[in-house]
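Class, study these two lines:
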Amino acid sequence: MKPLLLTVGNVYVDHNIFGVDSTERPFRLKTGTDYFATSSERVLGGSAVNVAMQAARLGVSVGFIGKTGVDEGGQEVRALLHTEGILCDLMSKDASLATSMAVNLIDKNGEAIGLHYGDASRNLSATDFNLHDELFARCHAIYFGGTAKQPLLLKDGEKLFRALRSKGIKIFYDPNKFSAQQDAAERTLLLAQLAYVDGYLPNEQELLQLTGSASVDQALNVALGAGVGFVALKLGPKGCRIKTTQEDFSVQGHTITPLSTVGAGDCFNATFMAYYLTGRSLKECARLATAAAAIKVSKNIWPNEAAITALLGL
């Protein structure tokens, strides 16, 4: 039986608009100004949904846990998940909330500005988890993505993680960046949760923010000291760095022309976990995940195994 990965987080209907003709650096828009773009798409979005889609393309059985309203957006989310072959049995609905939506404006260099509305995703909480469902009995691993944007889930994360670990389920975590206003409180919550996490997959900014450290080396040691099994640190075009209490190595990135950076970190995370769940070493997972992220950035596609191994010459 294929490994079952459950992913947890925000779910949006994403309207992505590409090639916005802003010349501002860093990418920003001015009021009272018209901008033009080259193309657009309407797709599923959200960190954990992106991870689910990519893991499914690599042969992993995937289920998604999130929350929608009972509106047309919620129906669209479930239809799109079904089309992707992702189980949505564990998703919850709330008639008092609007399904979350996003508009992502992406310039010609691949930088993005995201506009989000609808509160359903933000209101996902630990009480929405039915741990007695048969999917949890089948589950090999669970991924929490973007949890810093889900305050109710973040607040009770440690208790939920403890319950999941008691079932023998591996936990992977990429909570993303949290707001500066909540810095101290959220840092405390997240560091406590790392004690139950098998793999933590931040980028450099997120790692430094979480640990409050002045350097990456110090931050990695703080994360490992909190109890996490390994840290897979995403370094963008520079590749990644993997650190455990026994190993510390880097994998170089690939030279590419960027089309869009949207979802690149999620593509890395999903690919890393998909191969990890099949018994690959950390080094193999890192190489494959780095290649997958490069393809996502350069072609704006979720790559299958053939594309990933072709880039690596395997």
User: Anything to note?
Assistant: The first strand starts at residue 4 and ends at 9. The chain is about 35% helix and 20% strand. Residues 208 and 214 are 7 Å apart (CA to CA).
